[in-house]
Amino acid sequence: MRDTPYLVVDVELLEQNLADMAAHARRLGIALRPHAKTHKSPEIARRQLAHGAMGLTVATVGEAEIFAAHGVDDLFIAYPVWAVGPRASRLRALAERARVRVGVDSVEGVRLLAASGAAVTVAIEIDSGHARSGVAPAEAAGLARAALDAGLGVDGVFTFPGHSYAPDRRAAAAADEERALRTARDGMLAQGIPCPLVSGGSTPSVEHATPGVLTELRPGVYPLLDAQQWELGSAEPGRIALTARATVVSARGHRVIVDAGNKVLGADRLVFATGFGRLPAHPEARIVALSEHHATIEFPAGTDLPGLGDRLSLAPNHVCSAVNLADLLVAVHSDGREEEWPVAARGTNT
Asked: Between 61-69 and 85-95, two packed helices, what is the crossing angle to 10 degrees?
């Protein structure tokens, strides 16, 4: 028996989630390039590629380096990489091992990439409503022209519809994404700039993606899922493949305390969240408080409470943050067999 707390992956559920997303992309006729920042795991990446993913999306040069070292040869760093100092040298070396595409959203960023000498192509990041990085759709052609003038190849445009992370906004965010990408693509084509890549998608919005504009989907959370996806309505609790295994160490009234705090679950809690995570086997319960090594779980009056020493499975609010806190994932197969999967890209934030 392992000491708690630790992160568990249900391999059967993982495989179902991978197969379902791959089938969804095939039905739409859209390529799948999942975002590996969620799992940071070469083993899960291998399984995604086996299900037909054309390559991986990552957030940092460091993540790209790890996955390239594990044999992934087609990588999209979907981030406006600031290619100066050691990062520029690392990017050059990375591009010698894999096909690398990099996000850009400024002329200054384009110039730095060109000056780095890295053999990369770029994609223009579009703000489709998340109000984070990215240019306005109408500005895509101008930035693409600047990249071409600097000697960089331009693959097309991409966006992240992050405003899908709000109740009742998943379909609207997907519609915003399509409009923004269509405007950006058409603006480039009108200027005589090819735009073969039109990339988007998030786990909450991907259900509402439609063919016609998008050529590539980049969901990240879907293999493992989490409490946020449950509460957004984009996942059933029975499909959450990653949970934290924790032990009840204290009990008071209708509350129990388990030994998985924010150093295991992460501290993320969006405004719509009903707690600091959820218990798939106990949907009526709520994690009402979280500290470093304690999670306080409240059960409704009249509910049979877990006893001291009982083990519970907690779904983190944000699986990406929880995984980044772990050295390994305990993968459990349907026959009870266990494996340890290293979180190889943990902490690769540069």
From this structure: 30
